[in-house]
Amino acid sequence: MKIISGADLAPEHFAWNIDGKVATITINRPERKNPLTFESYAELRDTFRTLQHVDDVKTVVITGAGGNFCSGGDVHEIIGPLLDMDMKELLQFTEMTGDVVKAMRTCPQPVIAAVEGVCAGAGAILAMGSDLRYGTADAKIAFLFTRVGLAGCDMGACSILPRIIGQGRASELLYTGRSMSGEEAYNWGFFNGLSEAGQTISDAQKQAARLADGPTFAHGITKRQLHIEWNMSVEDAITIEAEAQAICMQTQDFQRAYDAFVAKHKPVFQGD
Q1: Average pLDDT along the chain
Q2: Which helix (H) or strand (E) holds 25?
Q3: What is the pLDDT of residues 146-176, one digit of tens each?
Q4: Kind of pairing, strands 140-142 and 118-120?
Q5: What phi and psi values does residue 75 have, to the nearest 5 degrees?
Q6: CB within 8 A of 141, min separation 6: which ones?
Q7: Is the CATH number of domain 6-212 3.40.1160.10?
Q8: Which sequence spans correspond to the domains of the chain?
Q9: Which CATH class is domain 216-263?
Q10: Of 176, 190, 76, 186, which is closest to residue 124 (Cα–Cα)?
Q11: Which pTM does this prediction carry?
Q12: Could you check whether 6-212 and 216-263 share the same CATH topology?
């Protein structure tokens, strides 16, 4: 399997920056609150898929430029053209957008969303599909699909959102399409923390850096288990966690942690 560097990735439809072991994706169409296009959807999908083979990026932050996260699919560049597509073309599009979330969930790196301002439609899905989320109190998160005549079951929302905030709260948001405030998002467990305006990306990157300095092989195992155990019985989950933990016990990071404990200093993990 070919291992590539994060520096080899050069997306055209969003900004890509690497600082140490942390990569930051910035959706950068601020003049329109960072809407997605057919091309940016596909490039996000391909980037998260490729990250499975990128060894020097340990965590990923996703954010938006200009004080907003993402306003969802571009009305003129996506929604308009969808009206002229046949069923086969529409299904190809919806499967492609769903593949973005699949790729986010299956890449081994923890993904952290830094949310300010508008976070709507597919933008709310990108935040939902991340592993951790930080945002401001005045952020507006809206799964607004029903407000444009579509079902709330977009890109895994009916499966993932109830697991984050609960079935009743998720049902209300997905039926009504109303905005969830940043305060609600934090109180309901959607946001892992609240940040001051302008500090969200910094807070997310600091958390990303802390995780990147941890036992990153084990983080990848943790992410995988969190994902696949949704569909398991408790008995099966316990069995597969025993196998996963036994694998982690063979890593050099496990040895480093023990040696550091004996020597009474903090371990320096290297992800192997």
Answers
A1: 95
A2: strand 22-27
A3: 998 999 999 999 999 999 999 999 999 999 9
A4: parallel
A5: -60, -45
A6: 115, 119, 120, 124, 127, 135, 179, 180, 181, 182, 185, 190
A7: no
A8: 6-212, 216-263
A9: mainly alpha
A10: 190
A11: 0.94
A12: no
